[in-house]
Amino acid sequence: MALNILTFTAAAVPFPSKIFNHSIQPKIPLQLHFSIPISTRHLSVPQSSTQPQKYVYPDPIPEFAVAKFKTELLKKLSKEKETFGDELDDVVSVCAEIFNEFLHKEYGGPGTLLVEPFTDMMVALKERKLPGAALSARASLLWAQNYVDQDWETWTSKQLRQ
Length: 162
Hints:
This is Protein PLASTID REDOX INSENSITIVE 2, chloroplastic-like isoform X2. The protein has helices at about 60-75, 80-85, 90-105, 115-125, 135-160; strands at about 5-10, 20, 20-25, 30-35. It has a domain at about 60-150. Helix 1 runs antiparallel to helix 5, helix 3 packs antiparallel against helix 4 (about 115-125) and helix 4 (about 115-125) packs across helix 5 (about 135-160). A two-stranded antiparallel sheet has the order 1-4. About 50% of the residues lie in helices and about 10% in strands. A hairpin with a 2-residue loop joins strand 2 (about 20) and strand 3 (about 20-25). The protein contains 5 helices and 4 strands. By secondary structure, the protein is mostly helical.
């Protein structure tokens, strides 16, 4: 049980009864003190022993995002037939595989898009001696910057409405 204490303190200050031929009432300063109740329930658990809860984002439907990524990247890179030739499908497959791994393991929602998977795409394409490594990685990064967070927010807002 908490106890609230309200105290009044008054002190009389002596003043002459007349100043400039006007009567003045003595002024009494009034001080109010109020104490806030402290409950013993709040003090029973030390604050250092409670961990803050970490928010975990729901899945961004990686399969949908990867399928959309693959389709859009194929459409974008098909404009560069002289660069990719017959290896366009292989290039897109390598990029989609790395993008899929990133979405499943590292992506955590808006603001968590990293550059590493796109540099990994460029390195993997160069290691496999596939054409257009830099162009493919750049196109992949630009697509992801424009659509991944936006699609994720659209999907999660639909999930919340259900």
